Amino acid sequence: MKRVKMSAIFKSGRHLIFPLLALAASFASPVQASNQASNQAGGWCVGALEMLANKGLSTPAMAQHLLALQSVPVIEENPDRLVFVSYRAARGGDGSQARPLQQLQVALNNARPGDKIVVQPGNYRPVVMRTSGTPSAPIIIAAQTDGAERAVIDGTGRETRGLIEIRGASHITVSGFRLQNAARDGIFVEGTDEGERDIRILNNDIDTTGNSAIYVGGIVMRYVTKVDEYRLFDVLIQGNRMTNTNFPKGVNEAISLGGGVDGFVIRNNYIFDTRQYGIDAKAGAINGSITDNVMHGIDRHGIYIDSGSRTVANIDVRRNAVFGVQNGIVLARESGRDPLHPNLDRIQVVDNLVFDSNGFGIMVYRHKDDAGIGKFSNITIAENCICGVKRDAVRLGGIGDFAQDVKVERNIILSSGGDVWNKIGAEVQDNGVLQPALNCPS
């Protein structure tokens, strides 16, 4: 298993971009992605198709096979101090292993840079983190497991914004919790005017939320950031399991990220049997990647890239498996304001597997609420495997007046209602049944 050290190694403009964007195979610049598409036609998705086809696997079994293809980087931890929390502890503990604290919120209130807060199995109340670590000494909030026993935060009867909230804090890791029955979000993160950074959300199990499982906003997304204002930098969302989000009438996604976020990696997550959408990068999300995620049983779109009222740019969508959804991967815009700034630019959708869709495989379109302003530019849809889609494998429509440099090439299309429906003048070439021996999963 590859070990990745979290050290900053390159810059984009004024800001450090998350180190894993440079180190992980999940990220490539637009030029690199184009070169990879040219040289590695149908790499990962072809292997995934070959593994799944003609095996008669159930949906959960297919998901487990796809998850087994992943190699998840290990994130190094070097804490200066361990602080223990146990719901069984007596009051008056000092946080040592012999005398743990009883309440998780007390541990967070007294945390200092370099702490690893070790949360032992048991039931805990929702918490809010407002204290920052430092680049060299982050604060880690880590749930322990003991066999089947886990640290659980249950939101039943509680009207908090999140079961775990990170508000105005930097250099924070949250890992290993079971979060359930949230009135709103499972994990809620919000930046500040000063710009918070380095948030890691790792290996949590989130079940039943009224809104998102994981909500990451530079600003809460019912508001609009100033143009080119970014309030949250360097976010990693990795290895989380999410189900039954936005229940019963939530309006976000299992993972919602936007509102002024610069630098993010969303990878190796498993999302299933949930309402609304799977993953959405929107409204001022730039310089990021969405890779190696597995999702199925999604009411609407699996992956959604939506500029909303602010530009979304330089995002790599790669090696995701999306199935049992309405539409697989969708690029759109929902904006009726600020004509110069709601743009989609430099979006790469490469080497993904989309199958068993009731609608479209990959779609680029104008949302019904969009005012037709701004632009769609430098979009590449290449080397994807799309099969068993009831309508068009790739559909491009409604944006012909403001689309430029859109390419659809070398996508493998099998057993779908249509191939490429192109009403925007995109450059379309070499799509179809490129490898006749391949079959859709069944």
Automatic annotation (TrEMBL):
<dbReference type="Pfam" id="PF13229">
    <property type="entry name" value="Beta_helix"/>
</dbReference>
<protein>
    <recommendedName>
        <fullName>Right handed beta helix domain-containing protein</fullName>
    </recommendedName>
</protein>
<dbReference type="InterPro" id="IPR012334">
    <property type="entry name" value="Pectin_lyas_fold"/>
</dbReference>
<feature type="domain" description="Right handed beta helix">
    <location>
        <begin position="164"/>
        <end position="335"/>
    </location>
</feature>
<feature type="signal peptide">
    <location>
        <begin position="1"/>
        <end position="33"/>
    </location>
</feature>
<dbReference type="InterPro" id="IPR039448">
    <property type="entry name" value="Beta_helix"/>
</dbReference>
<keyword id="KW-0732">Signal</keyword>
<dbReference type="InterPro" id="IPR006626">
    <property type="entry name" value="PbH1"/>
</dbReference>
<dbReference type="InterPro" id="IPR011050">
    <property type="entry name" value="Pectin_lyase_fold/virulence"/>
</dbReference>
